[in-house]
């Protein structure tokens, strides 16, 4: 094995994933050869840590390719993609390059399987490091394959529902990359198998609590255990995170566009409910789940299953992109009227005339989340009053190309309202962090899966979909009792409500683009706007048209041409 490569050079799976500029080139006086890498703990762990690259956070703003938003930048890739530009040569939503992270992980597994690294002279500590890091690697390999599957699964030219190639070994530069796609279900099973193997090795949580040690680690001295699995590692992938990821994968697999399979809904509901019961079930729903993005402190942990580190330094880059122009932002992502219409009235009933909605007073008596997620005409935000209608100056709809809103709205969700962008170019920033998985998503995974099994009141491990949706809507500030929820009796009606709650609660966190596809819903609903002309509000029925030819995304064309075993999805 030591002779496989002289220097560690992680090569991309398929052409174009990594350029020659990224190779780790040795220098004359400091050569890190394979013998060194395969025996030095810090160097080997550095390879594993590359597996944490390309994790998907909440800042992609891919909603601009859905009915929830448009991007006002004329050269924005998601705008081009949504407007008919998507093809096998141009796909800004592609995740094929996540195979690079897979290869890093496979190289690490190859190294530790040689058994030559001494993490510690203490035998127990050394053994536990091997266990934990192998578990991390297996979990990360599964996760990156899930990302690729989510973006590239589909019905192939052969008519079969296909997944993606599943790579379990490091491939040399001159190795065989011509690897066929597995079936969709075989890919799901391969991901699940890696997750399960990881669960046999990982602690549920990285903790300093002796009472929180999992059975697989109870044979070890606790002081030694803390060295390996103590709280300093609590942002690394853990057993709790893996269980949540398994629930996410099971729901994805069960969805109508894929397997439409009750057994996977059952798996998703069971996994989610078991994990939710560790935090108290429905009563454990975090109180700050609606505005988690305004609370940049460790107190966010009761909403977070997995997040990135909270930096010491402050920033304002996202706000500079998204704030309205009058407060020195570029107003880049504009929520649509379609999205605004999804918010119910204060009493929880849909926003229709029959339920008291007034199109000339459109924001009165609405779901409080609307004001928390969207900057509307007349709102105070970012240190100023934002008017998007007549007399609104540079904030007025379409007044400055590529800065002013195109829909009549600006984005507030995911932004910190205390950021200030000063006229002189300086800024008062705030701390921000990446979010990979929230408990609110897990509650919604449970609700969707359990409803698909048995309807609104189907109980799994003591929890029902109705209880989850009731808790989420009560937290949002809707009137109680929730008479609209009480009126929901059918599985179909609850399905629509759960999907709408998911649309609102997880908005602008990168979910809707993939949700529409897995649900098999229309991708081509035109983006709508709303404009105040000084006297009346008027709808703008088509701010931007959508033109997606398929629910399924293409495999990169150069991969299909170079490696004929890789079957392209139909229509691309």
Automatic annotation (TrEMBL):
Domain SusD-like N-terminal intervals: 87-207
Cellular component per GO, a single term: cell outer membrane
Domain RagB/SusD positions: 323-572
Protein's name according to its UniProt entry: RagB/SusD family nutrient uptake outer membrane protein
Protein localization: Cell outer membrane
Organism from which the protein derives: Seonamhaeicola sediminis
InterPro entries xref list: SusD-like_N, SusD_RagB_dom, TPR-like_helical_dom_sf
Main subcellular localisation: membrane
Keywords attached to this entry: Cell outer membrane, Membrane, Signal
Source superkingdom: Bacteria
Similarity section: Belongs to the SusD family.
UniProt keyword Metal-binding present: no
